[in-house]
Structures are given as structure tokens and as C-alpha cells.
């Protein structure tokens, strides 16, 4: 198989790339990582020293591609399908890239701060940092709710890179701080995303691992 996806079914950032792969039914194989296993981690670090998943390995082209947005743009360029994740029109492309960064940086990252703090040992937790993260996520979700009113997808009427980012960001944000009530448009977008076959498949594959998601 030309393409190898290195990641894990529970990882929100892995979901982002898997959605893109499933959207276009791009053939690939999965190397499921266990970063708690030294051998698995060392092998992954040999491929990508930062050892942050996911990573896409293109054996045919001799390329190792990290970073979710870059991976999806790489797929758009070298393995295009019926769904194009970056519009050709420059202004539309700028808007898609902007909302991709907003979902990643201001929804997903603070959400992960909140979640990871839950698994820290007593005495090592960061309540001030968690409150900051929650405030940032709330501000971003307010922006999202205003932006997508009357819109089908995250950046317009076409499914794009922004939706690949929005799906995991909104799914896990809803678990950390429920969207119902304060963010009805974001919740409606999440429901449309969950009904899309690519994301439904990602969720089905992740379901056996949801038991490991840390609760309050």
C-alpha cells in the first residue's frame, strides 16, 4: 500500500485526517500507534522525531507528511478525489484555511488542555490554566456560532478542510462543555457532520476506545 496512516482511533487530530481519507475513499493502511509502548514510540519517532500523531507516510513518493492541515492539502494535491478540501478560488481558500486554524487552535487545543488536566495526578493540576482554556474555547465557539448561521458547512456550502477540523473539535468540545443552549448553530453543524458517512465511520471505529476518555 502506497499510503500509511500512523495514528490512533481515539485521537481527535487523527480523526481530522481520517475524515479526509474516507471522504474520497483514498486507499491506505493504518499503523495503529501505542505511544505508551517504548518500541512503538521509538519506531514512530524514527519516522517523525516530534512523535506527534498523526503522520501520513507516502512510500511511493518517499515522503513523510506531519501536521493535519498539511496532510490534507497533500492529499488534495497528490491524491485528489471528488471532494476538494481547498477551494481553487483564492479568497474562498483563505477563508477555509482560516476556519481550519480556528477550529484547531481555539477549539481543539483548549479542549485538550481541559481533558489532559483530568488525568494529571493530584497536586500537578492546573485549575487556572483550565479556566483560561475554557474561556478561550467559549470565545471561539461564540465566533463559530455566529459564523455558521444559515450555512450548511463550516466555511460555506461545500464540505472542506474546515469541516475536517470542525468535526473532531465540536464533538469533543460538546463533551467538555455541552453545546446545547449557548451554541445552537455549532450543535446543528455537529449533527450534520455526524450524519456524514466519513465522520460516522470515524466515530464507529473510535467507539471501542471511548471508555478511555477521561471524565470529570
- How many whole angstroms does the radius of gyration measure? 17 Å
Q: Separation of termini?
A: 41 Å
Q: Structural class of the secondary elements?
A: alpha+beta
Order of helices and strands: EHEHEEHHHHHH
Under CATH, the topology of the largest domain is which? Answer: Glutathione S-transferase Yfyf (Class Pi), Chain A, domain 2
Average of pLDDT: 95
Number of domains: 2
Index terms:
216 residues; alpha+beta; Glutaredoxin; Glutathione S-transferase Yfyf (Class Pi), Chain A, domain 2; four-stranded mixed beta sheet
What does this protein look like?
The chain has 216 residues and is an alpha+beta fold. It folds into 2 domains: 3-78, Glutaredoxin, CATH 3.40.30; 90-196, Glutathione S-transferase Yfyf (Class Pi), Chain A, domain 2 (Up-down Bundle). Helices cover 56% and strands 8% of the residues. A 4-stranded mixed β-sheet has the order 2-1-3-4, with helices on one face. The longest helix has 29 residues, at 90-118. It is globular. The model has no long low-confidence stretch (mean pLDDT 95).
Secondary structure elements and their pairing?
Elements: E1 3-7, H1 12-23, E2 29-32, H2 38-47, E3 55-58, E4 63-66, H3 68-78, H4 90-118, H5 127-147, H6 161-176, H7 184-195, H8 197-206
Parallel strand pairs: 1-2
Antiparallel strand pairs: 1-3, 3-4
Helix pairs in contact: 1-3, 1-6, 1-8, 4-5, 4-6, 6-7
Quick recap of the structure?
With 216 residues, the chain is α+β, with helices and mostly antiparallel strands.
Amino acid at each position: 500500500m502506497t499510503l500509511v496512516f500512523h495514528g490512533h482511533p481515539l485521537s481527535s487530530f487523527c480523526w481530522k485526517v481520517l475524515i479526509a481519507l474516507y471522504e474520497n475513499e483514498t486507499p491506505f493502511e493504518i499503523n495503529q500507534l501505542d505511544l505508551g509502548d517504548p518500541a512503538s514510540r521509538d519506531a514512530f519517532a524514527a519516522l517523525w522525531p516530534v512523535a506527534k500523531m498523526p503522520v501520513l507516510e507516502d512510500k511511493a513518493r518517499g515522503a513523510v507528511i506531519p501536521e493535519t492541515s498539511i496532510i490534507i492539502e497533500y492529499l488534495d494535491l497528490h491524491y485528489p478525489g471528488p471532494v476538494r478540501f481547498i477551494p481553487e478560488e483564492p479568497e474562498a481558500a483563505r477563508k477555509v484555511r482560516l476556519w481550519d486554524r480556528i477550529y484547531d487552535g481555539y477549539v481543539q487545543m483548549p479542549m485538550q488542555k481541559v481533558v489532559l488536566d483530568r488525568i494529571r495526578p493530584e497536586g500537578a493540576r492546573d485549575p487556572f490554566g483550565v479556566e483560561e482554556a475554557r474561556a478561550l474555547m467559549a470565545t471561539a465557539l461564540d465566533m463559530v456560532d455566529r459564523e455558521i448561521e444559515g450555512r450548511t458547512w463550516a466555511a460555506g456550502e461545500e464540505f472542506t478542510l474546515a469541516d475536517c477540523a470542525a468535526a473532531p473539535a465540536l464533538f469533543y468540545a460538546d463533551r467538555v462543555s455541552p453545546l446545547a443552549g449557548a451554541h445552537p448553530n455549532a450543535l446543528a453543524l455537529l449533527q450534520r457532520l455526524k450524519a456524514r458517512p466519513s465522520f460516522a465511520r470515524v466515530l464507529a471505529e473510535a467507539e471501542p476506545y471511548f471508555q478511555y476518555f477521561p471524565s470529570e
